[in-house]
Structures are given as structure tokens and as C-alpha cells.
Amino acid sequence: MIKKDYVGIIQSIKNIALNTFEMKIKSDLNEAHSGQFISILCPNKTLRRPFSIADFDKETGVLTILFKLKGDGTSYLKSLNVNDKIKFIAPNGNRFKLEDKNCLLVGAGIGIAPMLFLKKELNEKGIKNYLITGFKENNEIIAGSDENVIGGSVLDNLDKIVKEKNIEVIYSCGPTVVLKNVARIAKENSIKAYVAMEKVMACSIGVCRGCVIRLNKNDEIVYGSVCQDGPVFEGSEVVWE
Fold first, then answer.
1. CA 187/CA 27 separation, integer angstroms
2. Which element (helix H / strand E) includes 177?
3. Which of 91, 127, 146, 213 is 20 to 30 A from 121 (CA-CA)?
């Protein structure tokens, strides 16, 4: 898939949880997959803002993003209205590799966004999956998970769940500490983990090298850009700090 600039029209924007919003955008984009993201141009801001794709309807060309109010970029998005136009680059990054195995999906907070899209893709292929997501408070819950962990860590009992549900592969998105431990749990259970890395991005197209991480490729340490080489990596190849 070739990424390019799009002008989208906002179809809807609604508050779905505490300081968390869902935005649907219609454009000429004709293909997108779970794990990929879009980079939105925010007026008077030099850098575009990246957002995971939470859903995409190929028939209508409508894509969905979720965002939590954090700064100028997300404040700009919240200020928009239905029928306003928005400029973005898409589709950015790689996708989750779908494996026909018993899948566990692990999200943390807004990291649920690509997990919802992944769950939809797995369901369409009839692949068994279970999505568990962690939130700090009840009012932060974003609908769509099979199980929510409130207050504690989404990692609590994860090893137990892997064993009880005979999980064969784990997919995850969230803070680094969550991804690092998901990769560890997967390794301890001799299964594969795919992690969607969250990293502050500058250009979002692999030029500035501002989102570089270390990877272990055949026992050799190399550097990869989250925006270009990821954001999805195998948990075992990431050199966790």
C-alpha cells in the first residue's frame, strides 16, 4: 500500500469516555489494516499527529480514530465539527500479522484502538480471540473488550489467562512497560507476541529518525523507526530498555 495525502470529511465526533473521543472520517482511502495509523495535519503545528486506526470500512471509505485529550493536537481535533475537512497521510506503518491461532489481545487505555480493529479482522476470518483491556477508572472504559481490568494492571493474571485459555499468540498495544511484559510472558510460555509500539513521532514517515528503537536481528543489534519499520514488531526482537 502506498501512503499519500488525503482530505477527509468528518462524519461524526463523540465523547465515548472520560476525555476520550471517537472520530469518523470519510475520504478516498481504499485500504487500511489493524496496526496502521494516520498522521493528521494540525494548523499552526509543524509536526503531524499520529493516531492508530481503530476501524476502517472499505465500502464507505470511513475510518475511525480514538483520541484522548492531551495537548494542542488533540484539542484541535476536539474543536472540529461534522463536515469539517481534515488533512492526513495514510496508511502509515505495517499491519498486524493475522495468525489462525487462539489469540489474546491486550490493550491498555487508548491502546485499545488498534486492538478493536484487529478484533474485527480476526472475527471476519473466524479466528478465535479474547480482548482484555486495562483502564485506570470506570469512567475511562472504552467499549469493545471481552474483559476490562479497572484500577490494577492489565498484566495482572495475564499469565494465568494464557494458560487457561490455551493462548497461542498475543497481540498488544499500550505503554512500553505493558508491551515489555507482554513480550516476557509470551516468551515464558513459548508463544509469539506482536506489539504495536507507542512512540513520540516527528515526521511519521521515517525521515527524521526521531522514533528509533533498538532491535535484535539474528543476534545483531540494529535500529528501526517505529513509524516506518513498525509500529508492529515481534516482541522477541525488540531490545527492551
1. 40
2. helix 176-188
3. 213
Residue 94, helix vs strand vs coil: coil
**Full-model pTM:** 0.95
- Using an 8 Å Cβ cutoff, are 38 and 65 in contact? yes
- Residue 3 has a pLDDT of 76
| Residue corresponding to grid cell 493462548 | 167
Average pLDDT, the chain: 94
C-beta separation of 142 from 68 below 8 A: no
* Residue 109 contacts residue 145 (beta carbons within 8 Å): no
To 10 degrees, the CA torsion angle through 169, 174, 175, 180?
Answer: 0
DSSP for 207-220, please give it: SS-TTEEEEEETTE
Predicted pLDDT of residue 206: 67
C-alpha cell at 185: 510472558
Nearest to 89 by CA among 213, 204, 237: 204
Q: Which cell is 165 given?
A: 485459555
Q: Which residue has the cell 487462539?
A: 102
Q: Quote the CA–CA distance of 168 and 166 in Å, as a whole number.
A: 6
Q: What is the structure's pLDDT at 209?
A: 75
What DSSP assignment string belongs to 103-170? Answer: EEEEEEGGGHHHHHHHHHHHHHTT--EEEEEEESSGGG--S--SEEEESS-TTTTHHHHHHHTT--EE
User: Is the pLDDT score of 47 beyond 90?
Assistant: no
Are 162 and 188 contacting, i.e. CB atoms less than 8 angstroms apart?
Answer: no
> Are residues 85 and 7 in contact, defined by beta-carbon separation less than 8 angstroms?
yes
Residue type, 78: K
